[in-house]
Write a structure and sequence with these properties.
By secondary structure, this protein is mainly β. The protein is built from three helices and 14 strands. The chain has helices at residues 45-50, 54-65, 75-86, and strands at 24-25, 107-108, 111-121, 126-132, 137-141, 147-154, 156-164, 178-189, 195-197, 205-210, 214-221, 234-239, 263-269, 275-280. Strands 1, 2, 3, 4, 6, 9, 11 and 14 form an eight-stranded mixed β-sheet that branches. β2 and β3 form a beta hairpin. The longest helix is centred in the N-terminal third of the chain and has 12 residues, at 54-65.
């Protein structure tokens, strides 16, 4: 899901109303670093290093792991970030399940309002938290050339993710459809392990539906960038059987590939029922010095 400058397309919005639970509505991000209020008693850089918070240590690891467009973290680096994210707690980013956001619901014509806040952004990576009320959906979308770490901090979430069957785009049987395999389809409840999407597997597409109010910490490296052809594209899934052909090599598997992944056709779309508001980050600060 694209956030920051030029909010995601397809119904996303940038409202000016105040947020809740220590979060306030924010103007478009214009700085490379987005930090919260100064920590009580914060001193010089020596003290920051000596008393680095879990969030600060995570940021420092991200700065070392993400080296810019065209690079992919090594397996050991992925394991490092996953191990750090697995230990992250809501309070590490200034959240609790009792905050107003998680006990109230904002809707417009029955569409839940999703909020997001940017903790930090630079050319190599971005750190964002998404707040989903119950039943809110972030539609199926991609992350071209990006490695994405998703850590569910609060709530219960259904995740469905796909990879392309053929990493190289090719004409499909009809209607500009492209064949994809479903690699994740399950419910995750906090606390749980970190989910990772890799650019090397092709596709990097996932869909979120909140079964209970959720807070998700996402780290994306590199970030979305229209200038670098890393824009966010949304998809709708079409059952494989609707467009299967006799010449399709996978026909014999009845919509399942040789590894047991269920197949679907994906078609580009513009989501009509997506409302999103960017709010100001009010949690522990991040120092990039």
């Amino acid at each position: 899901m694209k956030v920051g400058r030029g909010s995601s397309r397809g119904g996303a919005e940038d409202d000016a109303a105040a947020g809740s639970g220590g979060m306030e509505a924010a103007p478009p991000v214009k700085r490379r670093r987005v930090a919260g209020a100064p920590a009580a008693g914060a001193g010089g850089s020596r003290r920051v290093q000596a008393e680095a918070s879990p969030l600060q240590r995570l940021f420092q690891a991200c700065r070392a792991v993400f080296r810019g467009p065209g690079t992919v973290p090594a397996p050991a680096e992925v394991d490092l970030l996953c191990s750090m994210l697995d230990k992250m707690k809501p309070e590490d980013v200034g959240l609790s399940a009792e905050q107003e956001f998680f006990t109230t619901r904002e809707e417009d014509d029955g569409i839940p309002l999703i909020k997001n806040t940017t903790l930090y952004e630079c050319e190599n990576f971005t750190m964002v938290i998404f707040f989903l009320p119950q039943n809110a959906v972030i539609p199926l979308h991609d992350h071209p050339g990006m490695t994405v770490f998703s850590k569910l901090l609060i709530g219960s979430l259904h995740i469905r993710s796909y990879d392309w069957v053929d990493p190289e785009p090719a004409p499909s049987c009809c209607n500009h459809l492209r064949l994809a395999k479903r690699v994740v389809n399950g419910v995750f409840t906090a606390p749980c392990d970190t989910s990772v999407l890799y650019p090397t597997t092709g596709g990097n597409m996932h869909r979120f539906r909140a079964r209970a109010p959720c807070a998700i910490l996402d780290i994306l490296g590199p970030p979305y960038s229209m200038e670098d052809d890393r824009d966010c594209t949304y998809y709708s899934a079409v059952p494989y059987s609707r467009h299967s052909t006799k010449n399709d090599a996978t026909e014999q598997h009845a919509g399942v590939d040789q590894e047991g992944h269920r197949l679907s056709w994906l078609k580009e779309t513009i989501p009509r029922e997506l409302r999103m508001r960017r709010i100001r980050y009010g949690g522990p600060p991040i120092s990039d010095e």
